[in-house]
């Protein structure tokens, strides 16, 4: 039964890779990569159960943390890379008074 589940997870991983390479936008590719990582965690857990090695669960949890951190880092990198440079920098206070207000 678990061997069938492992085969289904591998098939889902292949579909996620297809979406990652064919995704029309960056966010589709990142989502497919995150989905592939999640399915990898499932596969590691299943393989640990099939081989009778419960320490694979620790490896799966560590991989899940790395997958989450990498997804957040990639999304932050591309959100700042695609934006306007002036939006990324902190605005400096202007030395001139605002329009319509007179200095007293």
What oligomeric state best describes the polypeptide chains here? single chain
Strand content: under 5%
Identify the overall geometry.
flat
Mean pLDDT: 83
Q: Describe it for me?
A:
This protein has 104 residues and is mainly alpha-helical. The protein has one domain (2-81). The protein is 74% helix and 0% strand. It has helices at 2-22, 26-51, 56-81, 85-88. α1 (2-22) packs antiparallel against α2 (26-51) and α2 runs antiparallel to α3. It is flat. Residues 84-90 have low confidence and may be disordered.
Short structural description:
The protein is mainly alpha-helical.
Task: Explain the layout of strands and helices.
Elements: H1 2-22, H2 26-51, H3 56-81, H4 85-88
Helix pairs in contact: 1-2, 2-3
Record keyword descriptors for this entry.
single chain; 104 residues; mainly alpha; 4 helices; 74% helix
């Amino acid at each position: 039964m678990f061997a069938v589940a492992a085969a289904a997870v591998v098939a889902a991983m292949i579909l996620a890779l297809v979406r990652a390479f064919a995704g029309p936008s960056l966010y589709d590719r990142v989502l497919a990569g995150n989905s592939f990582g999640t399915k990898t965690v499932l596969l590691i857990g299943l393989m640990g159960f099939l081989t009778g090695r419960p320490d694979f669960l620790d490896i799966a949890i560590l991989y899940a943390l790395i997958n989450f951190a990498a997804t957040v880092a990639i999304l932050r990198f591309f959100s700042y890379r695609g934006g306007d440079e002036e939006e990324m920098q902190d605005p400096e206070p202007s030395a001139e008074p605002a329009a319509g207000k007179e200095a007293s």
